[in-house]
């Protein structure tokens, strides 16, 4: 996959609490020209978030997706799971300013959304902000380089 194509591919996964938001986000992504890797679930039936978060993190780590979006009730379990992957910098965000700063300063590559604590409109705005905000690099790069445990 060429880099230009890869930048338009987004991996997404949730648990049952995030399923409705995931569905809305997938529709928004498709309408806006993104390709989607949907790691599930495919219903609101109770499910364990790691089963759907690990595939998102794997897709981002392998370069199959440019960025990822994960959603669970609090956003915490999903973020903790994704951040177990060495190549992942998942950011739990609850407003657009945090989503923007996560990209600008931390080069976050996965957005974690707390579905039970943010309205859907805020979640959608965070997704757009996250996808459209570039990493600033510069003084932030040396800090990002220190995150990874080798």
Could you give a quick summary of the protein structure above?
45% of the residues lie in helices and 16% in strands. The chain contains seven helices and five strands; from the N terminus they run αβαβαβαβαβαα. Helix 2 packs across helix 6 (120-132), helix 3 crosses helix 4 (76-82) and helix 5 runs parallel beside helix 6.
Whole-number mean pLDDT: 94
* Low-pLDDT windows of residues: none
* CATH homologous superfamily label: Sugar-phosphate isomerase, RpiB/LacA/LacB
Count of discrete alpha- or pi-helical segments spanning 4 or more residues: 7
Strand order of the largest sheet: 2-1-3-5-4
CATH architecture: 3-Layer(aba) Sandwich
Largest sheet: 5 strands, parallel
Order of helices and strands: HEHEHEHEHEHH
Radius of gyration: 14 Å
Q: What name is given to the CATH topology?
A: Ribose 5-phosphate Isomerase B, Chain: A
Indicate how many domains the architecture comprises. Answer: 1
Beta content: 15-25%
Principal-axis shape: globular
């Amino acid at each position: 996959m060429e880099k230009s194509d890869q930048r338009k591919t987004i991996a997404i996964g949730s648990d049952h609490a995030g399923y409705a938001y995931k569905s809305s986000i997938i529709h928004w992504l498709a309408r806006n020209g993104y390709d989607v890797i949907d790691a599930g679930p495919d219903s609101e039936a109770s499910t364990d978030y790691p089963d759907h978060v690990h595939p998102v993190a794997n897709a981002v780590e392998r370069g199959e997706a440019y960025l990822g979006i994960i959603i669970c009730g609090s956003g915490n379990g999903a973020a903790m799971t994704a951040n177990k992957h060495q190549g992942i910098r998942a950011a739990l965000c609850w407003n657009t300013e945090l989503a923007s700063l996560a990209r600008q300063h931390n080069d976050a590559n996965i957005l974690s959304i707390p579905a039970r604590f943010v309205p859907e409109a805020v979640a959608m705005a965070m997704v757009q902000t996250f996808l459209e905000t570039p990493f600033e690099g510069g003084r932030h790069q040396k800090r990002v380089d220190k995150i990874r445990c080798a």
